[in-house]
Amino acid sequence: MAAGWESLLQDEQQLEELALQAVDRALAEGVLLRTSQEPSSSDVVSYAPFTLFLFFPSLVPSALLEQAYAVQMDFNLLVDAVSQNAAFLEQTLSSTIKRDEFTARLFDIHKQVLKEGIAQTVFLGLNRSDYMFQHSADGFPALKQIEINTISASFGGLASRTPAVHRHVLNVLSKTKEASKILSNNPSKGLALGIAKAWELYGSANALVLLIAQEKERNIFDQRAIENELLARNIHVIRRRFEDVSEKGSLDQDRRLFMDGQEVAVVYFRDGYMPSQYSVKNWEARLLLERSCAVKCPDIATQLAGTKKVQQELSRVGVLEVLLPGQPEAVARLRATFAGLYSLDLDQEGDQAIAEALAAPSQFVLKPQREGGGNNLYGEEMVQALERLKDSEERASYILMEKIEPEPFGNCLLRPGSPVRVVQCISELGIFGVYVRQGKTLVMNKHVGHLLRTKAIEHADGGVAAGVAVLDNPYPV
Ligand code: ADP
Ligand code: MG
Predict the structure, then answer these.
(1) Across all residues in the chain, what is the average pLDDT?
(2) Would you call 321 a catalytic residue per the annotation?
(3) Burial of 84 (0-12, 13-18, 19+ CB in 10 A)
(4) pLDDT reading at 138 higher than 90
């Protein structure tokens, strides 16, 4: 099949044949998800949704890719600095926790841990900073941060396997030169190296890594990729639910954490970022884990550092300079990626932000303190919410953000059970970052790979797990 992209688009049968080849390669590479019907079993699995091909590929200007990679170490430093600055977290979140129960509960655990004294001495951050490319009239798009994920940043495992799939598609089309331009990518290895470093610094040869996940976990293969990398380094991982921790987890007098009688060096959360993931028992389990001297990824303060409210406060004039003193270049690199972010606290500044959003709704996004996709409000829905919240303190649990408008392009989004057709899409680039700190000394600070997710333009919100975006690869130009 050596057809060009243009003729392929005219030929439905050829397009479907190509899609079949792509899907089979994705399955062979392990680009997998459990099914929504059987989320706790791997007996029957399917492929994780992905783009068919890089036809008018998902072009990403090399300069923006480089910029995103370059600023990742700054974001690692920034997250780490925020997590250690209890006064900043308290001040920043004070209005939010009055109205947002979930953030308030996280904050409550943070306060309890601080009061008792932080037992852990090694800190591990595995994060992913997400961006869109703001389209501009002069033709030079700008890199704008959407958010940073400091807990359970996912798809590093599957993103390590998609380059082979897209190279395959291009090779089928005899586009070997283009195929060779698809960047290699291996976030799962880099994330595992971070966990391995933290495990090593914890310093107990028989201790384990405890991966907290739900039993109903469709994205298990993404997590397994990291587990496998750890096992290859003779580091053993056990998967447990919060419920298991509440039943069988314990601390000894030195606050060492034991699970099923085995010592835990590192707790890696792939759960615990949404209110629905916590029962009373799960909150107790989270507190137990946080009180322990095991390395938490992330610890509760680092999870709070990733809230949308913190993101908004970081964009305020002068704040970065205080958090990263003596690092004007890092501050400049960080600030260059910030979009407009606005507090909705019950004050004049908040009133003005609301007035501006109501005057031009298409230019803003309303965001609550939630993770996992599908929570933001746009357009008419945003207007209605703002009208309802306008005079209430509840509005402080949201932030307003400038809406980023990337230039759309055509691609096919392949999903089990969906027809193969070309739709207009936009992409979101994520860069994975890893850092490890021992006491006050930063012993690792790196970027470890990328994730490109692409979605149809009719969806304002939502990631791969939410069923909206699909896995993609940047084609650098
Ligand atoms: P979550 O924590 O739920 O992932 P995000 O802030 O990443 O929240 O928003 C979810 C999705 O909404 C993003 O993946 C992106 O598609 C869209 N989105 C978020 N913020 C903006 C924005 N400022 N402009 C355009 N789209 C946005
Ligand atoms: Mg997101």
Answers:
(1) 95
(2) no
(3) middle
(4) no
Q: Is the dihedral of CA 177, 181, 187, 190 positive or negative?
A: positive
- How many angstroms separate the alpha carbon of residue 379 from the centre of ligand 2? 19
CA neighbours closer than 13 Å in the CB half-sphere of residue 171: 11
pLDDT at 139: 79
CB 409 within 8 A of CB 425: yes
Residue 346 has pLDDT above 60, yes or no: yes
Residue 2: the pLDDT is: 45
Cα 372 to middle of ligand 2, angstroms: 6
* Cα 41 to Cα 216: distance, rounded to the nearest angstrom: 8
The pTM is what?
0.97
Q: Can you tell me the distance from the alpha carbon of 75 to that of 362, in angstroms, rounded to the nearest whole number?
A: 29
Active-site option among 178, 217, 313, 371: 371
Helix ranges restricted to H, 251-409 = 280-291, 300-305, 308-314, 319-323, 328-336, 348-359, 379-389
The active-site residue, picked from 308, 370, 437, 455, is 308
User: Which pLDDT value is given to residue 136?
Assistant: 86
Q: DSSP class of residue 394?
A: G
174 is catalytic: no
Closest by CA position to 373, among listed 258, 465, 249: 465
